[in-house]
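Reader question, answered in our methods column.
A reader sent in the components of a multi-part assembly and asked whether the whole thing could be modeled at once rather than chain by chain. We filled in our standard form and ran it. Here is what they sent:
COMPLEX SIZE: two components
ENTRIES:
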Amino acid sequence: MTITPSAIELKQIARRFVTPTGHVLSALEDFDLTIAPGEFCAIVGPTGCGKSTTLGLVAGLARPQAGAVTLFDAPVNGVDRRVGFVFQQDAVFPWRNVLGNVMAGPLFRGVAKDKAEAQARDWIVRVGLKGFEDHHPHQLSGGMRKRVALAQTFINNPQVLLMDEPFSALDVQTRELMQEELLQLWAQAKSAVLFVTHDLDEAILLADRVAVLTTRPARVKSVHTIDLPRPRDVATLRYDERFIAIARKINDDLREEVLRARAGH
Amino acid sequence: MTEISIPPETAVADARLETLVERLRRRARLVLALRLAVLVFLVGGWELGVRTGLIDPFFFGQPSGIVVKLIDWFSNGTSIGPLWKQIWVTIYEAGAGFLIGAVAGILCGITLGRNQLLSDVFSIYIKVANSIPRVVLGSIFIVALGLGAASKIALAVVMVFFVVFANAFQGVREADKNLIANARILGASNWQMTRAVVIPSALSWILASLHVSFGFALVGAIVGEFLGAREGMGLLIATAQGSFDSNGVFAAMIVIAVVALVAEWILTMIEDRLLTWRPETTVNE
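And here is the structure of the entire assembly that came back:
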């Protein structure tokens, strides 16, 4: 299957935690997933099943107890410069204005200040925040803060983009706009995306493939290829019959796990 | 048909807004008047109590006597020299101790907050040192450093250090895990992380501790002067106490309170300047 090189590969991963009471809690066991360069893969699963844990492992923020995580066939060893990460909560720096936030990445990576600023201004325009360069995050709406986060991430030109329920805190209309915007940015950046969400519709709208996870300890239960043509129209696609058929199929799969999670397995 | 006359509506809204503004203003005036009333009641009651013989001015002073004392001090100087000199000496000691203690506290707090091993090793000693009533150290400082400013500065330093240290340490520890993860992925080195994330997020903790600790620095300086000095507000109080001059003690207390309030005001200004990124809090004073 994987004759082409993989962008992200998780092989036989296990990630376990020691709880304060001394018990070992297994978040992931025998976890396998491969994502090709430029592919958009979404992960859905019951709440608390270990979706975010997966992202942390790929980002190099945490290490697995067993198995191997590789980026472009090289093992992950700490935070990789090719990785971008958009968080669920606001992770923009509240004490920096929009410009300072967007240019943070290049500055951290040693780009000269005037060059970093020029890049940042360009990205601020691209995410539609022109005129807000001097605003601080608390002066922006949730959607605008998410745009800052996107610009902050995309300016580093990530080949691997990890997204942890990035739009879950937004209202429905804003979420739709942001999804559209993300697809446009992704089409240009051509990065491999691992997108964690609890919203199945969102997963289908955005992704090439959707992986359904089991309850904890999480494994990949099934992977569904979404063969809806691109470019996709986020606003209307969800009413398309093909979309509904796919959603129904995956939903049955997912529901089984959600019910098991609720039963306490 | 579709034209709806808007002006009357906005006029109504404006009128409502105006009554709201008027009501807020009236309330502010009421609060001010009541505050003044409380002051007049307390000070007036005190004075009246003295005049009717209910309160013995020998022990508890007398408001009019305190005012006379203050005027006397300002125009003729105190028994130990000009008043300005005493105020300045105490401000100098408290200020120097505050600066040294705050800088040392911030540096140590951030270093230990960022380094798990160091904090594990030193936390026990800091807890022990913190549990010592630090005012007692004043005696040692006076023996070791003499009657001059150095011993008072040293006492102010230890009073300030632990408060600022504890807050800086806590502030570093409380830094948002998401922001730290984000900075790391954006490419920040350890030092860049400290500068770009850790210090700014600890800053509000640190500034809060500075408010409290300037008061502690004043206490340190004044207690040091109590224990042994040649000049300063603490000595002035000790002298007044020695001559059973309760009005003098109260007068010195008022002068010190004014110094503390001015310092507080300056710190608030610095804080506002440093924390411009924070959402405006509703002004409720």
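What stands out: Chain B touches chain A at residues 176, 178-179, 181-189, 192, 196-197, 200-201, 203, 275-279 (CB under 8 Å). Residues 140 and 269 of chain B are 36 Å apart (CA to CA).
Send us your own complexes using the same form.
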